[in-house]
Amino acid sequence: MATSVCATGFKGGLCTSSFHGSWGTSTAGEDYAALARSVRTHVRVGKPVRQMPMMKNVNEGKGLFAPLVVITRQIIGKRTFNQLRGKAIALHSQVITEFCKSIGADAKQRQGLIRLAKKNGEKLGFLA
Question: Half-sphere exposure (CA, 13 Å, Cβ side) for 50?
Fold first, then answer.
């Protein structure tokens, strides 16, 4: 028996969809009790595996100076390279601080310039 039922409650030709079947059975002819027995009641969910966050340069291997930086690191060794890089970054921060003192910039502006220098270094490949 096909009956057309609309959201407005009118029977007849006011709606395009029609309901076929009964409320007690599914479209495959199974009854609700059999369907409920076939579904597992308990589902085990394992603890999600979370990887440790890595502080990594998103532009690693990119940039104008990245190949030079990578080759230099391979030649002089990673430890020596990181020491040299640390000294260069400290020297550059001192230059930025002296510049800020000479123009009268406050600490917040100085910190902003240091962050900008780091972003530019990443883009150019100095932190590859």
Answer: 4
